[in-house]
Amino acid sequence: MVDAGSLGADEATFVAVVRSGDPARFALLTERHRRELQVHCYRMLANYEDARDMTQETFLRAWNKRESFEGRAALRTWLYRIATNVCLDFLGKRDDRAPVASGLSEPGSEVLYLQPFPDRMLPEDPQESVVARETIELAFIVAVQYLPPRQRAVFILRDVLGWPASQAADVLEVTVASVTSALQRARVTVRGRLPGRRLDWRSPAAHVLSDGERGVVRAYMDAHERNDLDGLRSLLREELRFAMLPELGTVVVSAGDAVDGWVSGGLFQRGRDDWRCVATVVNRMPAAVLYLRAPGGLEYRLFAVAVLHIVGGRIAELTGFDAAGKPWLGLPAAL
To answer: Is the whole model's pTM more than 0.85, yes or no?
Structure first.
């Protein structure tokens, strides 16, 4: 350990806590970084539940490695180093955390393990780079999953968090040249996976929903609760990109075919036509939480989360997440 007097205030306090061996004080000092570390793990893993688990693993590993903190980097950087390597270790042990072939007629793949990230769990400071809307939206998170794990880490550290190449190289224990090369390849891949979307994710970005987006969500929920199929059709762009995770098969369909497909699948038919909806925000995107009451039931039970990408006042992409029968994202199980 270094002399605490030569460190910054946070680092000096951390060194003193480490020397004291007090786990409660250690937790108090590191806990304030939990939310941004959880977002970092989420970008690496695209799965909210995994991100929570790996964030907790980060704190456990930090406690076990506390004596290794030398003060050469800020406490926050040290924690990011641990979180990044926790995620890389996780990915190295799992063969189900990569995009898989879609099975559709056209070439493509799916990120079946994708989960939304509730905005209430984002860091509270809206100026933090870690919460920029363009770098937390589902399309961006999915695009990053096409990068190999270490390339993914380089891209997130450099282009999302804005770290210098030397700092990213230190975290990953590679050369600056390796970081620069990996970043160049990563940028090409991510740009290729975000056609027609904003590509400059490093410039200032919006953090809040527009009034128009909120209005579309209200109209979508109202149409759902009234089983108003014409109303639903009118809210969808003529070409809708639709997925219902974790099922395989993102499709691009017309508005009419989308609604007809939902009906043929049993929605809005007797027994699946008594809805209540709650507006929420996930990944800085508008979303509707759908609750369904079974015939004779006393409660509306959590059914799905519909995340909406709205363009020009209509829904261009609808990503549904099956939430039936499980506690999820801190949402109430019933209404």
So the answer is: yes
